[in-house]
Amino acid sequence: MKLFNKNSKKENLGLLQAEIQTSVSFTSFFTAVTLFFVGLLITQYKNFDPSVSIPVLFLILSTFGFLYSTLIFANASGKIARFEKKDIKKDLALGNSLSEYFGVYLLVLSIPLVINVITEDSFLKIATIIAALGGLTIYHFAGFSIMGRSFRRAHYILLLLIIALEGIMFLFQFNNIFYFTLTAIVLIVMLIAVSVFSRE
Asked: Is residue 80 within 8 Å of residue 145, measured between CB atoms?
């Protein structure tokens, strides 16, 4: 019986290690992707109007979201290597939350705003915002989001607020109105921060 328990414990640690390795690969890849886009936009920064600072900010925050979640996963991997199972699930939950809320969401929200700045093609601009927000909505309604697991039904309200604020930012940027945009950025970042740190 003891042998079974030892094997079961090793198997559980092995599964956790595999999950962490996958998470580290994902988040480190997207850290590189967002850094690439930030670098690309920064080098061309002078050529764009001031509203490009919004998606650049989102991409920078996204980069940090992916970077810090990678560090959390890497530290959790070290705990497993030392057979310290304490707080590993908490580390995984925090790493996943940072990766999704600050990494994925801000990356998704930045793409339509970048396209809005770099092209004059209205069809491409509108198609991009529909694809970004439509994809985010499907992701939530399909039950894959961490927000859905954490907030149950209330996550639809949070998602609606994020979509509404993104839509408002897009429209103001589309029409070269810069007044509400900074407020919307603060509200979206605050909303995502509340989602990360106030889970049920």
From this structure: no
**pLDDT digit string (tens) for 184-194?**
777 788 777 77
Q: Which domain holds residue 34?
A: 2-197
**b/e per residue, 155-182, with b = 16+ CB within 10 A?**
beebbeebbebbeebbebbbeeeeeebe
Q: pTM of the entire structure?
A: 0.84
For the chain, what is the domain count?
A: 1
Q: Is the pLDDT of residue 66 over 50?
A: yes
Contacts of 92 (CB under 8 A, 6+ apart): 16, 19, 20, 23, 73, 76
Task: Please tell me what DSSP assigns to residue 121.
Answer: -
